[in-house]
Amino acid sequence: MKILDVALRPSGNPKFAGKTYGVNAAANWGFLYNDLLEDPKKREVITVYELDATGQQNWAKLLYNYRWTPQTTPDGVVHETIDYPGIVVNHETVSKNHDILNNVRVPARLHFGTMGLAPKEAEVVDSVPPSYTGGNVDDWRVGKGSTMYYPVSVSGGYFTVGDPHAGQGDSELNGTAIETSLNGTFQFILHKKNTLDTKLKGLNFPLLETSDQWVIHGFSYPNYLESLGENAQKLIYEKSSIDKAYKDAAIKVRWFLMNHIGLTEDEAHTLMSTAVDFGITQVVDGNWGVHGSINKSMFKFE
């Protein structure tokens, strides 16, 4: 699947013409939520960003932040924490801090956090943990001009896309990226099993290709629905680890170097230590991710 274009969706309010807004939540599922230094020790913080939807600026401006306060929905349910998407915040209950990160520009990295196909292991699947057919991979490199390859698990594929982001760093450490609204244009190419080239033959994970890199995605559990049994969609939030995700990514990178590039195992191992960049994709989506980035330029010579 080729991502032909990704663009900010401008505000429909004439007062904010040409602008797009996004929010980051340092939330209760964040990696450091239980290790905060300042009081109150248990707090969630929303930060609001402004972006230029005309394409003249490639960065996000910080407007203000505020600490989450209990919010009551129209049906009378009180949400003490950010535990449900789309809760409308009563701004009379929060105190906004406009004096934050002055003169800081956050790079705009437009991408869709969630893209992928349906797995065969379950009829109804939690959209948070990613898996071998993609999903909530949350890699900011999956943007305009890139190509994603996914193994097809069920007839029809059932592609889904969402979770649009205006900016994110590797790991999405403390909750979310800059959640916003995007428009995307995609091209779908079906590669039949009996015509697969070496790069795709045997592929059982999400593979990203850009103009200068291949990016291999590994997870704590490559197929958590199969590995963790009938309670997999609960257990995945308890059993993920970076060690497992790193091991999975390394095994996949080795497979790719041996099967696509044609290296021996020893050749692959030396490149994995000296030239492949491993990074933490995310630690907030239940099934944690590690990616290995391989520069194509290593294999191009005159």
Notable traits:
302 residues, alpha+beta, Endonuclease I-creI, five-stranded antiparallel sheet, globular
Question: What's the helix and strand layout?
Answer:
Blueprint: E1 2-8, E2 19-26, E3 45-52, E4 59-67, E5 71-72, E6 78-79, E7 105-107, E8 111-116, E9 134-135, E10 147-149, E11 160-165, E12 182-187, E13 207-209, E14 213-219, H1 224-227, H2 232-239, H3 242-261, H4 265-274, E15 277-282, E16 289-295
Antiparallel strand pairs: 1-12, 2-3, 3-4, 4-7, 5-6, 8-9, 8-11, 10-13, 13-14, 14-16, 15-16
Helix pairs in contact: 3-4
CATH class of the largest domain: Alpha Beta
What integer value in Å does the Rg equal? Answer: 20 Å
Beta-strand fraction estimate:
25-35%
Number of helices: 4
Low-pLDDT windows of residues: none
- Label the overall shape: globular
* Tally of distinct domains: 2
What summary fits the major beta sheet? Answer: 5 strands, antiparallel
Could you spell the SSE succession in H and E letters? Answer: EEEEEEEEEEEEEEHHHHEE
Report on this structure.
- With 302 residues, the chain is an alpha+beta fold.
- The chain has 2 domains: 8-107, no CATH class; 111-299, Endonuclease I-creI, CATH 3.10.28.20.
- Helices cover 14% and strands 28% of the residues.
- The chain has 4 helices and 16 strands.
- The protein has helices at residues 224-227, 232-239, 242-261, 265-274; strands spanning 2-8, 19-26, 45-52, 59-67, 71-72, 78-79, 105-107, 111-116, 134-135, 147-149, 160-165, 182-187, 207-209, 213-219, 277-282, 289-295.
- A 5-stranded antiparallel sheet has the order 10-13-14-16-15. Strands 2-3-4-7 form a 4-stranded antiparallel sheet, with no helix packed on it.
- A hairpin with a 5-residue loop joins strand 5 and strand 6.
- Helix 3 (242-261) crosses helix 4.
- The longest helix has 20 residues, at 242-261.
